[in-house]
Amino acid sequence: MGMGVRAALAGACLALTAGCITDRGGDDIASGSGVAARAGDSIRITAGPCFGFCPSYSVLVTPDGSGLLEPRRNTAVPGPTRFTVTVATYRKLRASLAAFRPATGQEKRIDHQENCTRFATDMPGYEIEWTRKGADKTELRFQSGCGDARYAKLKAALRAMPKLLDIEPMLKATNPTR
Question: Would the pTM of this model clear 0.90, i.e. be above it?
Answer without folding.
Answer: no
